[in-house]
Amino acid sequence: MNTDPYRKHLQLCQKLGIRYLPSEPIPPTVSPVQPTSQKQAMESPSFKSEILAPVDYSKLKVTWNPNQTEIGKKLLEFYGQICECQKCSLGASRKNFVFGSGNPQTEIMFVGEAPGEEEDNQGLPFVGRAGQLLTKIIESVGLWKRNEVFICNILKCRPPFNRQPQPSEVEACFPYIHHQIQLIQPKMIVALGLTAAAALLKTKSTLGKLRNQWHDYAGIPLRVTYHPAALLRVDAYKKEVWDDMKIIRDKFMTMTNKK
Ligand code: SF4
Asked: What domain count does the chain have?
């Protein structure tokens, strides 16, 4: 039998000044705090509201129609799942999470290092000067328009002052690019610059050594070339990138029997 209502009633009587009923010590009404298990913590309302808050999809920078294809829909769902990420310190300093842009049904993905200032402002990858150059590089091949490929970065948040990503940041963010590649399943990947190449290929080799050969990322052919930002600094790299793009074009045409 639950005696709480009787005790509460007696307490109320006491407060009202009724003295002829026998009084008893009132037990505490608040249970002592129990240590919280991890499972309980995850099920607590505060954890849910922090981590599982409904995503405002209207705020996401989506450049594809998610209703058009299953891949597009899954990619948008994934974007919604990770867009509030705070796994590393860059989450606190970013203006915008930069997921990626382009066509989820693409044949080719271009992967850079991290968002810069303009990308952070707009929430879209490669939209500054380097991005304009990347558009020219992609379209110079003659096979794709920019909106027909998918472009993203290893890191989804901008490192302050465009500094080099730290290994711990790359490690924290890497599962996201891996899952993007798994969802999109392109026929080919182009790694733009050493940071992207080193992260994808798990290597400490130099860009010079990595550039002149084909690599494999989970069964997908991968080629390494210079980051477009490097071309803005060193004009001579333009010819080398053009050479890389011709190799990419030839391999792609052979793979898809377009030659
Ligand atoms: S850089 Fe990646 S791991 Fe770090 S907070 Fe941004 S999304 Fe999360």
From this structure: 1
